């Protein structure tokens, strides 16, 4: 099943590694470094550039990862994942 991340972006729920709240995750030096490295590698996709980011979703892609920055809260995304897991 697929999860809508905003705009025209959907990801396969099986590819999701982590859903992180932007406010709490970016407090950590490690999280900021992870986002910086992802940006450097070109693995960051800003789903909605005109909105304030609320969370980011880390997904596996081939042998690497991609980070989707979205204006949808981590709680809402978590709820969407739970609904899919219950339906399976």
Brief digest:
This protein is of the alpha+beta class and 88 residues long. The chain is built from 3 helices and 6 strands, in the order E-E-E-H-H-E-E-E-H.
Comma- or semicolon-separated keywords:
about 90 residues; two-stranded antiparallel ribbon
Notes on the structure:
The strands form two sheets. This protein has a four-stranded mixed beta sheet. A two-stranded antiparallel ribbon has the order 1-2. Helices cover 35% and strands 36% of the residues. The N and C termini lie close together (9 Å). With 88 residues, the chain is α+β, with helices and mostly antiparallel strands. It has one domain (2-87).
Approximately how much beta-strand content do the residues carry?
35-45%
**Unreliable sequence segments:** none
Q: What fraction, in percent, of the residue positions are helical?
A: 25-40%
Number of helices: 3
What would the average pLDDT be, to the nearest integer? 94
Q: Whole-Å distance between the termini?
A: 9 Å
For the biggest sheet, the summary is: 4 strands, mixed
Q: Give the spatial strand order of the biggest sheet.
A: 3-5-6-4
How many beta strands in the DSSP annotation? 6
The total number of structural domains is: 1
Sketch the topology as an H/E string, one letter per element.
EEEHHEEEH
Architecture blueprint of SSEs:
Layout: E1 2-6, E2 9-12, E3 16-21, H1 22-25, H2 29-41, E4 44-46, E5 55-61, E6 64-70, H3 74-87
Parallel strand pairs: 4-6
Antiparallel strand pairs: 1-2, 3-5, 5-6
């Amino acid at each position: 099943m697929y999860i809508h991340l905003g705009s025209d972006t959907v990801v396969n729920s099986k590819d999701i590694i982590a859903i992180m709240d932007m406010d709490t995750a970016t407090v950590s030096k490690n999280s900021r470094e992870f986002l910086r490295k992802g940006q450097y590698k070109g693995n960051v996709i800003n789903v909605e550039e005109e909105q304030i980011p609320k969370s980011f979703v880390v997904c596996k892609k081939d042998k690497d990862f991609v980070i989707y920055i979205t204006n949808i809260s981590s709680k809402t995304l978590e709820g969407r994942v739970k609904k899919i897991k219950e339906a399976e």
